[in-house]
Design brief:
Elements lengths: L2 H8 L10 H10 L1 E5 L4 E3 L7 E7 L2 E6 L5 E7 L4 E2 L1 H6 L6 E4 L3 E7 H10 L2 H26 L2 H16 E3 L4 E3 L5 H8 L3 H13 L3 E4 L2 E4 L2 H7 L3
Antiparallel strand pairs: 1-8, 2-7, 3-6, 3-8, 4-5, 4-7, 9-10, 10-12, 11-12
């Protein structure tokens, strides 16, 4: 992917659109394109912060690891999404692994260049704070569900959120366009794989969802929203 194509894919992204045209152009001009193989790490937890990233192609997941060794998916990022802002703002090491799923490409704006751009365009600092807040709101919504909702409501909430960000309309319904295994989905919901399988089986029998391999299609979004209290 060349720089012209990278700019085209990012210029209409939600976060970049909050910047001035000059600041956005400076970020895109300063970025370096990295091509990643499936499961390659953009960075690992505890790595030193090295700047800001944006997904150009494919998918990047922010993954943590519990004390019991379970992988927890905190955020799934698609083309146009920016990430890595926390270490930019506080100067501390990375909190999570950032891992490519499928062949992917990211734009990397290194720390030194980012500092220079922020000095020339002061509004970027506020925009980075807003990006952190957006990610934090998503995380807090997940935490609230995990602490207060039943297992079925948590699953309904996660599926509704994933469909909102990654849903693709098909003849059958709204397909969640992700390669998401039951083990990974179980980690997001905070369930064992066996408990998740039982809940998904119930949703299939009730005609709410359909599953096939690593694909899940929402057949009745209204029912799913009722289950998560929306």
């Amino acid at each position: 992917m060349d720089r012209v194509e990278a700019k085209r894919r990012l210029k209409d992204g939600a976060w970049l659109a909050t910047l001035t045209a000059e600041a956005g152009a400076a970020l895109l001009a300063a970025g370096r394109i990295r091509v990643l193989d499936d499961h390659a790490a953009v960075y690992r937890a505890a790595d030193a912060g090295d700047g800001l990233y944006a997904v150009l192609e494919g998918e990047v997941r922010l993954i943590g690891h519990s004390a019991a060794g379970r992988r927890l998916i905190y955020l799934i990022l698609r083309p146009g999404d920016w990430f890595g802002e926390i270490s930019v703002l506080d100067g501390k090491p990375r909190l999570h692994d950032a891992v490519a799923f499928g062949p992917s490409a990211v734009l990397h704006v290194g720390s030194t260049r980012l500092d220079a751009i922020a000095a020339a365009h002061p509004g970027i600092d506020r925009a980075l704070g807003a990006l952190a807040c957006m990610h934090q709101r998503t995380a807090l919504a997940f935490v609230e569900q995990a602490l207060t909702a039943s297992a079925g409501a948590r699953l309904a909430f996660i599926l509704t959120e994933l469909a909102g960000r990654n849903g693709r309309r098909t003849e059958r319904g709204l397909e969640i366009d992700l390669r998401l295994s039951q083990e990974e989905l179980a980690g997001m919901v905070g369930l064992s794989r066996q408990r998740l399988a039982a809940l998904l089986g119930r949703l299939r029998r009730e005609g709410v969802v359909a599953t096939r391999y690593a694909r899940l299609t929402i057949l009745d979004p209204g029912r799913l929203q009722q289950m998560c209290g929306r």
